[in-house]
Amino acid sequence: MQLTDTARRFIVHWGEMGSAWGVNRTVSQIHALLYFHGRPLNAEDIADTLSVARSNVSNSLKELQNWGLVRVTHVLGDRRDYFETSSDVWELFRTIVRERKEREFDPTTRLLRELVAGPDFEREAADTQDRVRETLRFMESLGAWADEMLRLSPNTLEKVLKLGASVQRLVR
């Protein structure tokens, strides 16, 4: 498959942004290709289009599947697996936020709770205890807020975002 200049720029940029976010560049580029293309592709087509090794594509697709960003589908008359991603940007956003929260944010909150509840915590300096407790309160509040936002429909979430921008202008 030949990429247009627009597609190439989108995919390269998404790969660079993925690297900045701590995601493998090829993983990000594959997701960008599937999103931009909008139709299922098999691993061979992905490897050829992006000029990357087939093994790299397989590993990247597994990672995308583990994140819930890519799913396997099939094409009538073709035995190969095809891969697709959602074309709904809100669904993708919610999936990424939910996964990052579960993988990165929630373990930190759990650790802070364990530290505060632990027998050695009271031996720390009072100002250290205050900072850790305040961090825990912040993390719990932000986590609860994120959970509530993830429960909202895309339409409602968009309204909340717009309302938030309006409130910010009012407060300033």
Automatic annotation (TrEMBL):
Q: Name one GO molecular function term.
A: DNA-binding transcription factor activity
Is Nuclease one of the keywords? no
Lineage per the UniProt record: Bacteria, Pseudomonadati, Pseudomonadota, Betaproteobacteria, Burkholderiales
Protein name as it appears in the record: HTH-type transcriptional regulator
Family per similarity comment: Belongs to the GbsR family.
Q: Which InterPro entries match?
A: HTH-GbsR_regulator (IPR052362), HTH_MarR-typ (IPR000835), MJ1563 (IPR026282), WH-like_DNA-bd_sf (IPR036388), WH_DNA-bd_sf (IPR036390)
Presence of keyword Coiled coil: no
UniProt KW keywords: DNA-binding, Transcription, Transcription regulation
Q: Tell me the Pfam families matching this sequence.
A: MarR_2
Q: Which residues form the HTH marR-type domain?
A: 22-80
The protein's superkingdom reads Bacteria
PANTHER family from the UniProt entry: HTH-TYPE TRANSCRIPTIONAL REGULATOR MJ1563-RELATED (PTHR38465)
Q: Give the species this sequence originates from.
A: Ottowia testudinis
